[in-house]
Structures are given as C-alpha cells and as structure tokens.
Amino acid sequence: MQPRQLRWETLAALRTSSKGQLSYCRHWLQDEDILEGCMSPLVLSPYSGWVLDRVIGQSAQEIAPSRSSTPKESTPRTNQSSSLEKITSASCQGSPPLSSTEPSETKGNEDLGLLEMDQEVFPAVLPSKVTEVEGCIRMYEEMHRLKGKEGLRQRQEQQEQMVRAVYDLASEQLKRFDELKELKQHQEFQDLQEVMEKSSKEAQGQQEKLKEEHRHRAKVLNLKLREAEQQRQRQEELERLRKEEGQERLRRLYSIQEEVLQLNQQIDPNYRHKDLPRIDLSAYSNRGNQICGLVSGLIRTTSERGFPTQVDVANTERALQEMRGLISSMQQEIAAAVEEKRRRDEEEERQKQKELLKKEQMTAQTPAPAQQSGGKQQKEGLQVKAEESTMQWYQQLQDAAEQCVASFSGISNCKDNNEVKKIKTDLQKAATIPVSQISRIAGSQLREIFDKINNLLSGKSVQSGGRTISVTQHPQGLDFVYYKLAEKFVNQGEEEVASHRDAAFPIAVVASGIWEIHPRVGDLFLAHLHKKCPYSVPFYPALKEGTSMEEYQRMLGYQVKDSKMEEQDHFLKRMSGMIRLYAAIIQLRWPYGNKHGTHPHGLNHGWRWLAQMLNMEPLADVTATLLFDFLEVSDVDY
C-alpha cells in the first residue's frame, strides 16, 4: 500500500504545481492554432527524474518477491533504469526551445531517437498514464517544430516572389515615366517655339505702333513748343507790368515812410511847454517810434522779398493813418492841458485875490503879534517811518508795476498757443541778453548794446539768436519788454555788481541812457529796486498783524528758501550791489544823448535819499554798509 499511497501523494503534488494548474482538452490535437501562441517550450519539472526513480524502485521491490528473475533479466532492467535516468536528466537540463527557427538536423535526429527509445522503454517499464501523456506532448512539440520550419520556408519563397514582382513593376513604371518625361520635353520645346514666333510678330507690330505714336507726339510737341513760346511772351509782359506796379507801390511806401518820419519828428519826448511843465509826451513818442519801426520793417521785408504787395501798401497806409491820429490826439491833449492850465490859473488868481483881501481885513482888525524870542523848537529825535510823500511815491511806482504786469497778461499767461510762447521767449532773450553782456571791461561795446536795446524799445527789428525780433509782433510786446528789461537791470546790480563792484558804472551808463529816452523803463526799474531793496526808498517795512515771519523777512529784502533765511553777509552783499548801481545811475548820463536835457533821476534824488537815510533810525550793519557804498560810488571820478 505504501507505493500506491506515494503515487497519490506525487499526483497531488503535481496537481498543486504551476503545471498542474493548466487545463487540457482532448481537442487540442485537432486545433493546431492553440499551441502556436505558447512562447516558452514545455519542459518536465526538475523533480520528475526523482519521482520516476522512486516509482520504478517501488515497482521493482514489489515484482521481485513474486517473480524469480535471472541475471540476464536484471541486466536489462538496470540498463532500462540507467536509460531512464539519462532521459530524465536530459529533460531536467532543458532542451532548446521548439519555437527556434533554425534547429540542427542532428539534434532533431537525437530527439527522434530518444522519442523512439521512450516508446520502447516506457511502455514496458512504466505503462502509467503520466508517461503516455508526456510522450505525446514531446511528439506534438517536434511535429509542431517541423511544421513551423516548413511554413517559414514557404513564406521566404513567397516573399522572394513578391520582391521579384515588385522589382519588375517598378522597372516598367520607370520606363513609362521616362517616356512621359521625354514626351513633355518635346511638347514644351514646341510650345516655346510657338511663343517665340508669336512674340516676334507682336514685337514687330508694337514697333510699328511706336513709330506711329512717335510721329504723333512730335506733332504734339511742336504745338506745345509754340504754345510755350506764346505763354513765355505773355509771362514776360505780365512780369514787366508787375514790376512797374511793384515799383509804383515801392515809391508809395517810401513816400508813406517819409511822411511818417516827418510826423514822428513833431513828437518830442523832451517837449516841455512853458505853461505846462508837467505834461508828458513819452507815450506818444514811444507809439510813434513803434509805428516808424513797423513801417521800416515792412519796407525791409518787402525789399528782401522783391516788390511790395497791395496788402503791404494797405498796412503802411493804416500805419500812416494811425500816426496822423496820434498827432491829432497829442495836439488835442496839449490843447486840453493848456485850457485846463488857463482855467486853473484863473481860479488860483481869484483865490489869491480872496486871500489877500482876507489878510488885509485881518491886519486891520488885529495888532501884529510879538516875535517869540526862542523861535519855534524843532522836534528832536530820529525817524522810524519814511516821510508820507516818499511813501506815496513808493506806492505809485508799485501800482505802475502791477498795471504793467496786468497789461501783458495775455502774453505771459499763454500756455496753449505755441506761436505766442515763442514770441515771448524771443522778446525776453532780446531784452535780457544785451544787459547780460555789459561787463566792467565792456568799453566800446556799450554803444552797440545801447543801440540794440534802444532799437528794440523803439519798435525796430533787431537780431537775436539768428532771428529777427520786434515788439510789434505782439500788441503786448512793448510792455513785456519794458518790464523784463527793468527787472534785468536790477538783477545785474544784485548779482554782477555785488560780485564785481566796478561793473556798476557801465551798467549804470546804459540804464541811464535808456531811462532818459524811455522814462517808463526808469519807473519800472525803481519799482523793482524798491521791492528787492526797500532801503533804496529808504523804507523800513513794519511787521503787521497776521504777517508771518518768513513773509516779513522777504519784505526786508532777505531771500528765504525752505524756511531758511540767507546769511547776513550774503544779504549785505546783495543790498550793497543794488545801492551801488543806484548811486552810479544818479550821477551818470549817457554821453551820446541830449546833453542839454535834464537827468531823468539826478543828484537831487541822491541828496534826498542820503538825507532821509541819515534822519532814520539806523539798523545794525545795514545802514552803515549802504551809506559807505553810496558815498564810495559818489566819490569816484568816473
């Protein structure tokens, strides 16, 4: 019973192994495609030899007692067992896979021999079902390998046939392609010949057409040449007439200019009527000079352009009419002033007669009082405030400066009009650059600078920065130049004279000459000077209620930046420069001007300033410094 029990254990072990889990079907031999999908060859388990040895050993032990055996029989069994061990060991080592495409014939013959030997040995030794199944599997594998080898050979032959067929087809197609290409070349060559023949015919026709057009254009050009000649003759006639008209207009402009100049000579800025000493004709003189400059500029522009147009003549005629109206207004003003003076004189005469009559009546009624022995005592002590008349004069100058600023607000506040902004910049440069060029070694350049400034204020065109500039380019141009020029003179005293004291004299000479011809510049100069240096009035501003300390310091003449007041030395240096320029202007005159006229701001103003400065309460550092500078400049023999 033990061998039988061992067999069942062996079968149970095989059933639980990985091979035992496979399911077999009896129809596998009929379906050849099922086993073709197996990639790995079927091999026996490494333990199959051990199992067979045990089984054969047990069988031999069972058979030995029952049967008597001879030595000859034992020998074959031994041989059989040894052959079985060889087969089992060969199966354990593994055989080459059956799916290989190139197995050797020798190996196949050996396998066939083994199979035959198995068929001979195992039926006799182990007629069990396991051995039979194992032999069938090996036979099936060999048959499948041979069948696969035959199929591979057939496929190779089929593939070679297909390659030969494809090669033959490609050769035939290449021949057809060459034939088609040659045919296309012949057709293209023929088409090219036809196109060339057609082009030559068209070129001949085009050449004939061009010849015809050339003959036609020649006729047209001859006609145009004749018309051009006639047009040239007409243009020459028109040009001759235009020149004659232009010369006539130019003679008209010259006659208008002559008349304007004669009328302008009737306006004397230094005119003083014996009965009207206070009448001022400087405004009429300035406007007359502007009109003369405008007419001169028009004539100069038209001369550069060629001949004047009718518009130019109309503009000069309007200027002439304005000049006549200006003369008429001046005469009316003089007549009205004379009448007013006469009426005022009559009124004063009557008033004097009434006062004389009253005095006679008082003399008759009361006795003459006795003379006081001590006389009238004067009030002792220094002044703290300036005199009332001086303050009125100071306020009038400041009001005039504010009115001047308001008069050119249109040109100063213009931000959108680029043309007006450009005119403003040019006028400011023309007014300030010449003043900046005045230095202590100016010498003969002073007259050139003076003439340039005077021409600008007189309405004439001047050159500045390569551009022609005139105050007549804008209605508010003259007031703007007056204001900027006066401001520049004061700035030169504050900066240039403060650094170079000798520069006060050349600047003062030019400023005095301009002041004499254009009094408004002098008034604006004083307004700027009093505002920056109140000690030139002299005037000590008082601290009013509600005025901040920073604003009060500015009123005293100090420069305040970022709430910091400038140092005292720098402040005294600036004040000294402006007082030196003021003292130089008082005592100097333009040497090429009217020597018989009076100084526009003469020595009497210097004595007035000196007296009022001495009578006022002195300020530490300021009073002594300004008095020293004023007297030092006045003592220099320039």
From TrEMBL:
GO terms for biological process: poly(A)+ mRNA export from nucleus; protein transport. Keywords: Coiled coil, Cytoplasm, mRNA transport, Nuclear pore complex, Nucleus, Protein transport, Translocation, Transport. Residues 62-109, 337-384 are annotated as: Disordered. The keyword Protein transport applies. Residues 363-372 have a biased composition (Low complexity). It holds the Pfam family GLE1. Residues 338-361 have a biased composition (Basic and acidic residues). Residues 189-248 form a coiled coil. Its main location: cytoplasm. Residues 62-94 have a biased composition (Polar residues). One of its GO terms (molecular function) is inositol hexakisphosphate binding. It is found in: Cytoplasm; Nucleus, Nuclear pore complex. The keyword RNA-binding does not apply. GO terms for cellular component: cytoplasm; nuclear pore cytoplasmic filaments. This is mRNA export factor GLE1. The lineage of its organism: Eukaryota, Metazoa, Chordata, Craniata, Vertebrata.
